[in-house]
Amino acid sequence: MANTALETGNAPIFRAGTSDAEIEAAAMKAMSRRKYVVLFWQVAILVAILGVWQLASDLHWIDPFFYSSPTAIGYRLYDWVTEGTENGSLWYHLGVTMEEALIGFVIGSITGVLVGVALGRNRLASDILSIYIKAINSIPRVVLAPIFVMIMGLGLPSKVALAFIMVFFVVFANAFQGVREADRNMIANARILGASNWQVTRNVILPSAMSWIFASLHVSFSFAIIGAIVGEFVGSLAGVGYLISIAKGTYDAAGLYAAIILVMLVTLGAEYVMTLVENRITRWRPQQHMDAQ
Question: What region holds the ABC transmembrane type-1 domain (predicted)?
């Protein structure tokens, strides 16, 4: 029998008699090729955007005073890294923002999971408190920044409080919904086997809701960063938001974009770490293989 595989486009087509090992090898090859194709286009799009931006700035199709240019932003980032900002070391400002965001993220995530699971498991309590949760959630969180700064001052607590609020409702909503979406048949089977409420919650509900919870954690850290920066922008003595505020006040477009890029890099790094943690914790789940198309 022939053991061959033909490739048309990106998907391999196998002839009758192809062994499982050949099929797996061809699939892995197609997936590897697809990763390189994706990476190529990601880099190409970024280079194209930066190239058009630089060209438009050099030829004055756009005003460099307002839009700056990739080279000016790169030089500003280099100066900040090597010589620091006019208001202190870049690492000090970045460390202040990260401290605020991390504390708010951790407290908000833990509280959101605990409250979401508790209310998800207690329908009466969730019905009673739902109106208050909806009322608080309807308030745009960023407008709370001046209130927190006024009550708690310009230091760490006001920024942590805003980061906490930004994170809590995202995590709470997903944890609550994840509990409600748990497989009722598995819960019933666990109860038949004599499992207590705590055992059902720990061994059935939480694993079932873990995908929902991690989905919220992936986006909530960026919200924690936003909360910390908005709080710093409203009133602070240090942090990336403080640098943005100074750049805005001095019409320093390159400084504004440089600070935004810093936030993007930190958030992407946190997203990568979160993915590694999720993959390690949820190794029990079946692997989701992408179709090599």
Answer: 94-274
First to last CA, the chain: 27
Verify that 188 and 86 share a domain, yes or no: yes
What are the pLDDT digits (tens) for 187-208? 677 777 777 777 777 677 777 7
Identify the residue with better confidence: 158 or 9: 158
The proportion of the chain whose per-residue pLDDT surpasses 70, expressed as a percent, equals 85
Q: Which helix (H) or strand (E) holds 217?
A: helix 206-234
46 and 145 together in one domain: no
What's the pTM value of the predicted model, to 2 decimals? 0.74
List C-alpha distances in Å: 87 to 156, 206, 291.
18, 46, 51
Domain span at residue 50?
Answer: 19-61
* Residue 41 scores a pLDDT above 50: yes
H helices present in 122-205, as ranges: 123-137, 145-152, 156-180, 184-192, 197-200
